[in-house]
Fold Fatty acid oxidation complex subunit alpha.
Amino acid sequence: MVNDSRGFFTSRVIGTFVNEALAMLGEGVAPASIEQAGSQAGYPAPPLQLSDELNLELMAKIATATRKAVEDAGDAYTPHPAEAVVNTMIEIGRPSRLKGAGFYEYVDGKRAGLWDGLAETFNSGSSSIPLQDMIDRMLFAEALETQKCLDEGVLTSTADANIGSIMGIGFPPYTGGSAQFIIGYQGALGTGKDAFVARAKELAAKYGDRFTPPESLTK
C-alpha cells in the first residue's frame, strides 16, 4: 500500500535518480559517461535521455513547489545541485524532447545523439569520477529515498517498495527492488545492510549529505 505525500513514492524516487545524473553533469562529468553508468547500473533508459522525456520545465516546477512546502513548514530548504543544471537548460531553450531540444538532439522527433553543446555549457570532461561511484550514486539515491518513504509511512511495506520501483520506475530488476537493494547489497565493503550503510557514508563524505543514511538504517 502507498499513502499520499508531497510527491508520490515513484515520483520521489525516480526524481533522485535523474537529479544525481544531472548533478554529475554539473560537476563536469562527460555526458556519455553518465549515460554509460546508467546503462551499466541496469536502468532501462539512461538518465539524460529519461530527463528529456520527463521534461525539465516540469522538474523546475516540482523543485519550486518543494521549496515552498519546505519553507512553509518552517524548515530550511537545501537545493539539490541538479537544480542549477535544470535552470541552465531551460534558459538556453533545451527543456525536453517535447520541445525538440534537450540533452539530446532531435530530428523529426527522433533522438539523434547527445547535444554537442553540453561540453561547453557544463565544462564536460573537466571532472572524472570512478564508474562505480557514478553507478552507486544513482542506485543509492533511489534506495535512500525509498527508505525515507518507508520511514514516513508513505510506503507500508518493503514488498510494495520493491514491486513499485521495478515495475513503476525501472529500478534495475537484478537488485530485487529499491528496498531489497539495501538489505541485499553487495559491494567492496561487504554485504548486507551494514555494508550499504558504510558505502552510503563514503558517498556522503565525497558527494554530499544527501547520501547520509537515516537513523532507521543505523540503529
The chain has eleven helices and four strands.
